[in-house]
Specification:
Elements (H helix, E strand, L loop, with lengths): L1 H25 L1 E2 L2 E5 L5 E5 L6 E10 L2 E16 L3 E3 L8 E4 L9 E8 L3 E8 L9
Parallel strand pairs: 1-9
Antiparallel strand pairs: 2-3, 3-6, 4-5, 4-8, 5-7, 8-9
């Protein structure tokens, strides 16, 4: 009986290790670059390839992260691939979950992307325009 219990414990630990390795192997960073042009357009480009996008969220900072439950803009990517996204402009094949709000001058925001297979990227930017960005 003791041998069986020891074997079950070892099996449980082995399973935890395998699941942990699987989760690490299935996640990846989506690298983002934000540019704000002279007309106050906020453009986000993907630096390494074109991820299949699950959703995009723009939110204000909150604590150590961002206010994901209070989006400024949110779109569902339906696992489509695009090279870049402009704030407030819905890429072809995407669905809008939350219409874009004006970006307040001088305020910080996070642009967050979740891709397929556990991919995730977030970049903070400051709206340096003198007027609110309205799309």
């Amino acid at each position: 009986m003791q041998f069986v219990m020891h074997r079950l414990r070892m099996s449980k630990y082995f399973s935890v290790i395998i699941v942990g390795l699987f989760l690490v192997a299935c996640s990846y960073e989506i690298e983002l670059d934000v540019k704000i042009d002279s007309e106050c357009n906020v453009d986000v480009a993907f630096l390494k390839g074109l991820p299949q996008i699950d959703y995009v969220l723009v939110a204000e900072p909150k604590g150590e992260g961002f206010a994901y439950n209070e989006p400024v803009w949110e779109i569902n990517g339906n696992y489509k691939k695009v090279a870049s996204i402009r704030y407030g402009q819905l890429p072809e094949g995407f669905d809008e979950a939350f219409k874009p709000l004006p970006l307040v001058p001088g305020k910080s925001y996070y642009f967050v992307v979740k891709g397929s297979g556990g991919g995730f990227g977030a970049v903070e930017f400051v709206n340096k325009c003198l007027t609110s960005v309205v799309t």
